[in-house]
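Open question from group meeting: does this chain pack into something compact, or does most of it stay loose? Before anyone orders reagents, we agreed to write out a predicted structure and look at it together. Recording both the input and the output here so the notebook holds the full record.
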Amino acid sequence: MNRLLLSCGAILLTSSVAWGQSEIQMRARQRPGWDVRAREGRCEIRVWVDNRAEVRMRGDTIFVRTMEGSKGRDEGSSCSQPIPYNGVRGFQIRQTAGRNKVALAEEPSRVNNYTAMIAIDDPQGGGDNYAFDVTWQAEADVAAVPAPFFDDVRACQDTVRARFQSQNGRGSYIDFNAFADGRGENQVQGRDSGRSQGQGRNRGQESIQGHGSARSFNESRELTYSCLIDTRQHQVLSGNYQYSAAGVRTNDRRQLR
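Structure tokens returned:
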């Protein structure tokens, strides 16, 4: 009987954690005086978090990933410019609201494709509003910095990863291959990826396809993934994956979905 109760409790815990994992993505609002060529930048990040979440910043895009707890959300974040893509120094955060400490987990650098990561832990329950100011200086000549771009391959992979983790729970992940294969003739310059541009009534849309390996505590499987991208609105319209081979299992517990 005790063994049965323990098993049920484990199932409920796994389900709860899987439900809590999600990610939202949005463009920061432009503050008065928005200037992509300014030598100093500033963002006011405002989010609601329950339990545990990660906030990532890249360019003018903000990602809120809920690790545990109710789904986090943006509460009106704004920036004076996008984080530069070719060099940042003096990157700092200063918390202005929230009942627990906000921690800078990663500064933007060439290693992480100039993506900042901020960790928020709110274990009390019920959630709370968090706010913090982010400031930086451009390391290179900002006059030569290209305009902010939408990384379509990365956005596609983030969407597929979020869907996969929502289905398979904590401890599951995908290793994406370096190449994303496209069915069209256009090759993305400067990146190991391919894509096909939509024509006719689908003008402004593109499709991305790629391969990867899905893994969990119990199983590993090869998969393919695909996304439909709105290149005008810079949004992922759909992201799907399917397994392309039989899995290698370490035990008879829960299968990958």
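Observations to bring back to the group:
The chain has two domains: 21-144, 152-249.
Residues 1-20, 182-195, 197-201 have pLDDT under 50 and may be disordered.
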